[in-house]
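Today's session is about reading a structure prediction critically. Students often jump straight to the picture, but the first step is always the sequence itself: look for stretches that repeat, for charged clusters, for runs of hydrophobic residues. Only then move on to the predicted structure, which in these notes is written as discrete structure tokens rather than atom positions. Here is the chain we will use throughout the hour.
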Amino acid sequence: MRCPFCQSENDDRVIDSRPAEGGEAIRRRRECQQCKRRYTTYERVEDSVRITVAKKDGSRVPYDRNRLLEGIQKACYKRPVPAPSISAMVDAIEEQILRRFDREVPSAAIGELVMKSLRQADPIAFVRFASVYREFRDLGELAQEVNNAMRADAKDPRQPDLFQP
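Below is the predicted structure for this chain, in token form.
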């Protein structure tokens, strides 16, 4: 392990080790033997099956947890959604992907899972994400999505539309 401070590749010493992320990882506190500074590392089991994302344009890219996390964080920017909730949301979406798909997942399936999670967590974050994901062509489409979200939130299909396109 290379020290993040002095870049030394000398042996470091593990000071503390404990389960993290619900047992999915191991958190280790380490001390560099050269500079004596401490740092934390996380160890995870490498997925034996790599998932590929099939994009709308037909291309295929490796699944990247960080891209999913960044997209949700952008949607939740300056919203009252705590970081642990966002992390739990990513974990739950990832779990559903791994349960439902073997090797390849359509990007549309990931987008729908994100929208479902965001709709429950924060309606504004949901609309932000949907506006980018669904590529609305005009305000009427956006207004319709907002009205649908408001009806779902109120659980009353008779609720009047607030936005008339």
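Discussion point for the tutorial: Helices lie at 65-75, 83-100, 107-121, 123-133, 139-154.
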